[in-house]
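Q: For a teaching handout, I want to show students what a protein-ligand complex looks like in token form. Below are the inputs, and the small molecule is magnesium ion. Please produce the holo structure.
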Amino acid sequence: MVETLTQSTRIEMDLRLEAAASSEMAENVAHDKGFRVPAIDWERTGRDVITMEWIDGIKLSDVKAVIAAGHDTKKIGVTVVQSFLQHAMRDGFFHADMHQGNLFIAPDGTIVAVDLGIVGRLSRNSKRFLAEILYGFIQRDYRRVAEVHFEAGYVPRTQDVASFAQALRAIGEPIYGQPAETISMGHLLSLLFEITQLFEMQTRPELVLLQKTMVVVEGVARSFDPKFNMWVAAEPVVSEYIMAELGPAAKLKEARDGLEAGLKLLRKAPELAVGLEVLSRELPELIENGIRLNDDTLYDLVQDGKASIILGHVERWVIAAALVTIAGALVLG
Ligand SMILES: Nc1ncnc2c1ncn2[C@@H]1O[C@H](COP(=O)(O)OP(=O)(O)OP(=O)(O)O)[C@@H](O)[C@H]1O
Ligand SMILES: [Mg+2]
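A: Here is the structure, written as tokens, with magnesium ion included.
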């Protein structure tokens, strides 16, 4: 955690990096409605100077002025929260300092964010993890939320899924008894991290950064709409992600990608022969021992200098998986 903060402070001091973060986010949100960031003037930007488009708007910290200007206050909360979740889940890149002072509302109602000195990133694995836990909690499917932790490799297999699901119920259920406007998703995530620690999950700095920002973003929404319902606002974004990334269409795409990889491999006959041999020799052992792969295990292995051994295994796994795909295609075809 301390190292992550040290690194983010270093990055924050070099304004070229802040400009780059702003430019990256501008590209990500180019087609989004209701949220944008100022354009960067690269010619006038350097290590100690950042120059960007001037935003003529009202700061969200000035709630009275925003109301006086006649903006739809309920919509502000929804846009801020949905944008944040969209950035985290779709782009894996989010503004990690989204307080009222860094947000403007333009005359046309668009929210404009400045100050991208601190940003967070989520890997593909973490994005999927986040979406699935939020979806699981929205659906009250504690078993699924528990399984996601194991699938992501965040909680060791030695832990018991059922007991973990039970612990998740203990934090989820009291929340459903509360009035919607007092429910905080950020708070729920902090309770979740307390529980996951009990089950030997390592703290993940990028998720803690996300959780802390979520608390701030919810605060912004509530300052404009005290009855703001976090679940209702989050649901469309989370569902859309789940359908796009994990629904039937995504599964089909995954299968097609697998098949394409398999066909590519077929063209490389020599490797295929090696692959077949490896498959027959090592698959039973691999299945028996199972290899759990995630950022942490890889990191530990690199530290131990064992990475090349495991990477060798991964290569063979890829070959094995491709062979299985080809076999399937041949049978089906
Ligand atoms: N593009 C812009 N257009 C108009 N005003 C801006 C713009 N960028 C920044 N500002 C104003 O300057 C203030 C400080 O900018 P910024 O938040 O990037 O700096 P900071 O040093 O991180 O400040 P803080 O610690 O207050 O967050 C903003 O809160 C905003 O009022
Ligand atoms: Mg600021």
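A: Two things your students might notice: The pocket of adenosine-5'-triphosphate (ligand 1) is lined by residues 38, 52-55, 59, 101-102, 114-115, 117 (CB under 6 Å). The chain has two domains: 2-247, 258-332.
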